[in-house]
Amino acid sequence: MTIRTIVVLFCLCLAAPAWAESHADAEAAPADADEVAATDDAEPEPDADGDEADSGADESEAEASSDELEAESSAGSKPASKPQEPKVKIKRKLPTDRSLAPLDPDVVKAISTPALRSPSAESSYARKPWLATMGQTTLGGYADIHLRYERVDGLVDQLSFVPERFNFFTFTPVGDRVRITSELEIEEAGEEIKLELGTIDFEIDPAFTFRAGILLAPLGRFNVEHDSPQNAFTDRPLAVTEIIPSTLSEVGMGFYGAVHPTAGSQVTYEIYAVNGLSEVVAQDAQTRISAGKDNFEDNNPSPSVTGRVGISPVPGLELGLSGHFGPYNAYKLGGERVEKTRTLGLYALDLRVDRGRFSWQTELAWASIDVPPEAGGLYASSQWGAYTQLVVRFLRDTLLPGSSFAAGLRYGFVDFDTDSDGDQVHRVTAGLNFRPVEETVFKLDYQRTISEDPLANVEHSAAILFSVASYF
User: Global pTM?
Assistant: First the structure.
């Protein structure tokens, strides 16, 4: 099946409810037109209270309900040529231009709890623009395109355009307490297509909501807030792609919520039981946690547990503590134990501070892996990484109304084996970007990377990255 076929089928499935409503509305239109014509041709007659009917009835009177039209007919108007059919109203039609359609107040309320300061649970979806609503479903997405020029030890390694991502997401409130959210991810023109997010939420209380489905593991901040249009740099930090590893989607169930100890403070939490990661120590005789994600069918009978607590004492400041723990190996086969249960623990600390034009964000992640004793010389049992970045916005509304510029600097590293001196990567990125509107960003980055393999061989590389990312 081609990528075009998949996208067309996905959009047709989402558009079906709106087409059905508009089709029903079109069938009802002739009946309305005949009855309006019948009412206009009638001579003014006194109504039930003796008043004359207004011959210059406005458009709203022409679209009167069935009961009102029947009353006028009994008072002397000519009968309609067709019986009145019930009207079906479309909640909102797609916008004819490319501007964003405003959301219904009920939808805004549904996706904006807990408060927007928290990156956790559904609140990250409240920051996404949305294209339009079809019935109860709200649609949106984003695209991310790269141009990469890289040199390794002075040699040209890559000069290419990369269609990095094209994602679709939906949000549907079902009644007052049930919400369904999804995100379909298409990477590199269809090389990878997967449902990155697909959750059903049932709000028992604003402080206690049940969630089930394919969810984003609340491990660190970036894994939840990873959309390219939200971020100031083209590439994601090393620590959250190699240690976390973002984007980490897992099948599971659990709860999330938010409480407000004071008027200006907030505490959020998420806790889920998930399938967990699979074998992470079997890739090229190295421990690589990213190789164990996308474990949608569990390889062992024991779930993992993941969760995050976010503490925001004042607006613009949040500290997050998170973790992910559980078995990663297939220790049972056919119901019989074949080896020892081996566990993987991931832990993260994140901090974000927003003050005026400045935004500072940092994240620390480390991993503890229970590796087989016989493989202790090959596989690492401990890894860690971190990044810190500072971004400043400037020249707001200068070039275009609503536009802004930003400059940023990020340093990140990852140590794949804390028990040895090698197997490390360090990277510095300087970036400049321009937003003609808040939902669209053009990014220009310069990277310097130093990589050291397990044998202490050092490699230097540089890259110039240009990208454009936009919500739609």
Answer: 0.72
